[in-house]
Amino acid sequence: MKLNFLKHRWQKNVFKFVLIPVTVILILAVVVNRYWSPILAAKVKDVVLNSSDSLYTADFSDAELHILRGKIILYNIRLKPDTAVYNKKKRLHLAPNTLVELSVKRLVINHAHPFSLYFHKKLNIGQIILNEPRLNVSYQLNHTKDTVVKDHRTAWQRISKSLKSIHIGNILLNDVNLNYEDYSGNKVAISKLKELNLSANDLLIDSATQTDKSRLLYCKDIITELNNYTGQTPSGLYTYKIKHLKLSTFTSKLNIEGLALQAAKASTFFDKTQKDRLGLLADSVQLSNFDYLNYHKYRTISASSLKMSGGKITAFTNPVKTKDTVTNQVKTFPNMMLGRLKLDLRIDTVKLRRMDVIYNEFNNKSQKTGTVEFDNTSATILNLTNNPSAIAKNNITTATIVSYFMNRGRLDAQFKFTLNDDNAPFSYKGSLGPMDFTRLNPATMPLAMVKMTSGKVKKFSFDIDANSKVFKGKVDFLYNDLKVVLLKPDTANDRLKRKTIISIFANLFVIKHNNPDDKGKLTSSYVIFKRPKDFGFWKTVWKTLLTGIKPCIGLDEKSQKATKDRIDEHNKNKAERLKNKAERQKRRAEKKKLMDEGKF
């Protein structure tokens, strides 16, 4: 059958200029697809080897090129370090702190331009997708700052003989299986991450970006997202959880939602350690201007601010802790703890908002647990650092706190810590607003075996200068109508019962019911408290305040001695009365016996 549609000359010309080029392109696509794999493999290996200074090698088993769609599929990709090169660099103190090994079964490259690569030496790719890659990362602190290397060339200068530029629009790593091994501590810390997604945008390596400080690893932005992560501390005593984490290198922000640090069950925890049991819950945490690259390389935390909102901080003292009178607990002072941190820390401002702080302590004498609460706490901490250069500029860390003590009285306090003094000097001052004394019973009944039956705090203020040896300052405690009941344990009924006589005696002769008193006389207290070596920070802070409170409520040393003498006298008289009663009962019993025997 004759082809009628080619009768005219113009139809024949169209056939030549359209069909023939298409046919040629299809033939070229088949040929290029067949021979492209070894060419691409050679280019990839060359680029990776040169840009990593021979530390890493890259390989893949096969490649498919769909030239008309600009799509490349690579199979069984593997990026791995050369351990011989790494060990050589380590001996020369040039080894990086982090080693990476990557394996991907299938990698898809979209919108590639192979002719641009082959003819113009420009690697231009629209998108790279890696699904479910396996990534092994090991970290070892080989050096704490950039090492001096002989090759000062940038990445572009190293690849410039093979390529003029590299540009990748987007790199997506979905459902990454990450195994992270940290060798920087005393024990190897291993973290296994799933539900991890990584994306990098606008990767560009050329002559213009080779010194661009706004880019991380030559990318405009690298975003890391982690969901539903759970891990354990090396000791196994704590589990930490993160509901969602997102890090953006472009915004330099690290955002965490649903952060939790949970201790093991009390019985397990206290069997394994002498330390106090801690806990943390936070709805959200944000680090701003976070220098991720320095953290990744050298474990330094540098940020302009840290914000933590919503949640609670809990502490439970170890009830079976062995008393240690040898170790100097000055190490528990915040300024000393900062200096002992193993990481380099520098945060300009820390802000806590809507946090509840709960302290629990078990009293062996009462067999009860006392609770002290600081509710709806907000705090601002300035210059939180142990960085020597930062301390040289400013050696004071300040903390301003607003809280509601036992969810009632407003507490305003300010702490100032000196960071570069072995004597750990600091100061604290503040005031507590009006509240009922009865709100203190969850703490005073189990811990002091004292029940507040009435009274109202008008104002409690303090101003203390301190160091590792001595705490000095002034305490004022204004209140009305204070009355108490003294308690003792009733082990048979698992409760605390009233010491009736002693309570009456205390209210009549010991306790000062009002300050100022009925005549308007105000009792203030000037405190000098010498810290025992085994007293930690918070214990000393509280004991100093308690030393100031006692005189204000009538429990100064003179009153306490007089009270003790009266109680001793009372107990002596009581003992004599009981003795006389016993003797009378004995005589009556003897008389009855004689009468029964008819001898009386």
From TrEMBL:
<feature type="compositionally biased region" description="Basic and acidic residues">
    <location>
        <begin position="558"/>
        <end position="583"/>
    </location>
</feature>
<feature type="region of interest" description="Disordered">
    <location>
        <begin position="558"/>
        <end position="600"/>
    </location>
</feature>
<protein>
    <recommendedName>
        <fullName>DUF748 domain-containing protein</fullName>
    </recommendedName>
</protein>
